[in-house]
Design goal:
There is one protein chain. With about 350 residues, this protein is an alpha/beta fold. It is about 30% helix and about 25% strand. It has twelve helices and 14 strands. A hairpin with a 4-residue loop joins strand 1 and strand 2. The longest helix is centred in the last third of the chain and has 21 residues.
């Protein structure tokens, strides 16, 4: 099976030549990993503890968001680093999680995530959105590839594997841990709360293909492949999960959560009474004995996106972007919220991994 592109394999020969040196920053690399399930290569992004070298780049920077600096192709620092799989939100990219990926890499983790085809910025359709089984396969494929490549495997601790997801990505990492969702419950949720953003997306009649908005039929969730939607997508290599504002919060089978052996940590953006029903995680967290729920006060769902650039709100208004991507609706700046989130998430993974023997 073709796991890594030749480019990645050749690059690693020099990237890992400094193994054993003391970390001096965060390295960053874009690679291609082949997905047999999708019959195409995945664009995968990796952050890691690095030694001096590489070119400083602002990862995730665009017209709306600020980037987060990392050193492209810097040599990887040696050691046994835990690995964290990343899953981005619907219609976003993993590069937009660079701020938290960089914080994790700076704390000693290798961090890797794919852009999920069909639910990524400029390549996103309502029909593809509920196919969580594709996202979980992407994540397992990335993990297998990195653990199979001898030079990268030499700096990853295979007994300390975690996953971090936001929004739709939060639902994906929960399923990767073995949680299962019920299609009837998800249908009922959208019937009951049609104004929730995900339900509006299914009913909205638009999609994005090849970076262009196109018109499509409204998508009825009853057309989802129920067997695939409700199947187990468990990856037994996973030890711990952090799910931030996970989608499908009303549709998860609570009995399946009780069967999960990984530590499950939920993070909701905002006080309990302000968190939308779509992602509110108190019922999920209270159904298990091996997890936790943390609320980040004065935050909103979009607070997990990067810090917005000056003039971003005016630019979004000019292009007709309806979602309040740059509004945090609280008394703290997004940068301050990110500081708390970084510390919270790093601490959750460190605590969970400290219990792995």
């Amino acid at each position: 099976m073709r796991l890594l592109s030749l480019v990645f394999s050749l690059a690693l020969t020099t990237t890992l030549s400094a193994a054993g040196a003391t970390p001096e920053g965060v390295g960053f690399k874009e690679i291609r990993i082949h997905s047999e399930a999708r019959n195409k290569d995945l664009a995968v992004f990796v952050w890691y503890p690095a030694v001096a070298g590489g070119e400083a780049v602002p990862v995730g920077e665009d017209r709306i968001f600020e980037g987060t600096p990392a050193f492209a192709d810097a040599p990887v620092a040696g050691g046994d680093h835990p690995i964290i799989l990343l899953s981005h939100g619907s219609g976003a990219t993993v590069q937009k999680m660079a701020w938290i990926a960089t914080a994790l890499a700076d704390a000693g983790f290798v961090v890797a995530g794919p852009n999920h085809p069909g639910t990524t910025s400029g390549d996103s359709t309502p029909e593809d959105t509920p196919k969580l089984w594709e996202r979980t396969d992407d994540l397992s494929t990335v993990l297998s590839a990195l653990l199979a490549e001898p030079k990268f495997r030499s700096v990853i601790d295979p007994d300390k594997i975690g996953a971090l997801g936001f929004s739709l990505g939060g639902a994906a990492v929960l399923q990767l841990a073995g949680a299962r969702a019920r299609l009837d419950d998800y249908v009922r949720y959208c019937d009951t709360y049609p104004d929730m953003p995900d339900c509006r997306w299914f009913a909205g009649g638009r999609a994005y293909v090849d970076q262009t908005e196109v018109q499509v039929e409204a998508y009825d969730l009853r057309n989802v492949d129920q067997a695939r939607f409700e199947q187990s997508n468990l990856d037994t290599r996973l030890q711990t999960v952090v799910a931030v504002d996970p989608a499908l919060a009303t549709a998860f089978d609570l009995e399946s959560l009780e069967e999960v052996r990984s530590a499950l940590h939920f993070v909701n953006l905002g006080a309990h009474e302000t968190v939308p029903i779509a992602v509110r995680s108190d019922t999920l967290a209270s159904s298990i004995s091996h997890g936790s729920l943390t609320n980040i006060e004065n935050a909103v769902h979009f607070s997990f996106l990067p810090v917005c650039r000056q003039g971003a709100k005016a630019f979004m208004k000019a292009i007709g972007e309806a979602d309040p991507l740059c509004s945090d609706e609280g008394s703290r700046s997004r940068a301050a919220l990110h500081e708390e989130l970084e510390q919270t998430i790093v601490d959750l993974f460190r605590s969970s991994f400290s219990k792995v023997k």
